[in-house]
Amino acid sequence: MAESTRKLATIVFTDIVGFTKITAKNEPLAMRLIEMQRATLKPIVEKYKGDWMKEMGDGLLLTFNTTKEAIDCSIEIQLTVENVANLNLRIGIHQGEVIQQGHDVLGDDVNVASRIEPFSSPGGIVVTEQINASLLRDPVYQTKFIGAPNLKGIRQSVRIYSVISHGMPQGVELPDDAKIKSPSPAPAPSASSSKMPMILGGIGLLLLIGIGFMVFSGDKSPELKEPVVSEKSIAVLPFDNMSNDADDEYFADGMTEDILTELSKIKDLMVISRTSIMKYKGTTKSIKEIGKELGVATILEGSVRRVGNRVRITGQLINTENDHHLWA
């Protein structure tokens, strides 16, 4: 077992915009895009003395010793990938204490970075108040407050700012009541429900690829001396509606149900029922707490956000024992 150390770090979380759709349409292209991302970004991260901690599907987890190194690296990354076809990124940055185990980091502050990233505009950067306080000391950087959403599984208050200098696009300003979790009841299906099969087909394929890899390769952590749950077990938490329109709650609930249906077809995979997981809709409990209550090794959580005719879908597969992101 790798030795654990605590340290203060600036955490950067990135993912590729539209990667689910690309994978559904052209899997070889998606795999080449991952390789291109690695080849393009690693030299930039090394230039700013960053640590390439983990790749999670199309997502990256990076850490830096200073805020300036992290923000300058992120800006250069976004300016560089502008010229790379299909490599369109969102970036979220937060600073806090992390627990480092070998080539991995974990902790609540790591989760904050991953939770704020979806609020970035494509090609943009969002940061928390801790990062923004450092940027205010240097007039070279300009930011704009976009909101203080209630982030799922995060108990600390988080204010999000969009970097608007250096040619970065401004993030969408959130309404006062914006949340990643929406406790309002789902309305009856509307005419827009005809779009659901197409949306579910795209994300469903990618999610099942990631889950299938996890299930059959296994996350066999040597430190688990007395496993109390099956490694091949999963709960799919209700997908969150991040849109301003309550009608989109139907899309989020429909996505959860379709994924549950497809997962139940995988032999030897224990899938928690919809009845059991719906009580966690809008919960503030941590992944570890939910995993312990349901007796599962992994949890899949996700969100749906629609702006106009565009739909943004995210999904994360998390190890309930150590809160590690296995796939995103």
TrEMBL record:
<protein>
    <recommendedName>
        <fullName>Guanylate cyclase domain-containing protein</fullName>
    </recommendedName>
</protein>
<dbReference type="InterPro" id="IPR029787">
    <property type="entry name" value="Nucleotide_cyclase"/>
</dbReference>
<feature type="domain" description="Guanylate cyclase">
    <location>
        <begin position="10"/>
        <end position="117"/>
    </location>
</feature>
<feature type="transmembrane region" description="Helical">
    <location>
        <begin position="196"/>
        <end position="216"/>
    </location>
</feature>
<dbReference type="GO" id="GO:0035556">
    <property type="term" value="P:intracellular signal transduction"/>
</dbReference>
<feature type="region of interest" description="Disordered">
    <location>
        <begin position="174"/>
        <end position="193"/>
    </location>
</feature>
<keyword id="KW-0472">Membrane</keyword>
<keyword id="KW-1133">Transmembrane helix</keyword>
<dbReference type="InterPro" id="IPR050697">
    <property type="entry name" value="Adenylyl/Guanylyl_Cyclase_3/4"/>
</dbReference>
<dbReference type="InterPro" id="IPR001054">
    <property type="entry name" value="A/G_cyclase"/>
</dbReference>
<dbReference type="Pfam" id="PF00211">
    <property type="entry name" value="Guanylate_cyc"/>
</dbReference>
<keyword id="KW-0812">Transmembrane</keyword>
<dbReference type="GO" id="GO:0009190">
    <property type="term" value="P:cyclic nucleotide biosynthetic process"/>
</dbReference>
